[in-house]
Design brief:
mainly alpha; 5 helices; 2 strands
């Protein structure tokens, strides 16, 4: 009975929409929640890797790709957290257009700005992580279920 009541309330909510009150227009409070989400992603992915190793899934090549992608995704999330914090200290004058120029220049006043713009290239970590997930899932789907140990692997 509680299941049907929950479904009824969800449907009623869809038919009678109102303000969701979930959007946080203030940058600081939204940032803190977002940073917490990055932190929890790192923690959950870390426990995922630990459980996968405890279950001896690393003997399967597909799972090794997935675990490597998981490590990269943890690195991406940590780098993104640092980038979000540095974003608070970025000045509005970091990019400027000199007189007569058509391409804006980047003014780096300190190491924070340099690190911020390096961390803005987070897709260089996220894309390989997604590729490793894809490759691992593809290997598992193709039926690579026999253990593959170093030295006995055949490409």
């Amino acid at each position: 009975m509680p299941f049907f009541f929950t479904i009824f309330l969800l449907l009623l909510g869809c038919l009678l929409p109102d303000n969701a009150l979930a959007f946080q227009p203030h940058a600081y409070s939204g940032l803190y929640i977002h940073q917490l989400a990055h932190f929890f992603l790192i923690v959950s992915l870390f426990f995922f890797v630990i459980k996968a190793r405890q279950a001896h899934l690393t003997s399967l090549r597909g799972w090794r790709y997935i675990i490597a992608g998981t490590w990269l995704l943890m690195l991406w999330s940590a780098a993104t957290m640092v980038g979000h914090f540095l974003d608070l200290y970025m000045g509005a004058d970091a990019l400027f257009l000199p007189p007569g120029a058509t391409i804006p220049l980047l003014r780096l006043a300190g190491w924070q700005e340099a690190l911020y713009y390096i961390l803005k290239l987070d897709h260089l970590i996220a894309v390989p992580a997604m590729f490793l997930f894809y490759r691992g899932l593809k290997l598992l789907r193709e039926g690579q279920t026999t253990p593959s140990f170093p030295g006995r692997d055949h490409p």
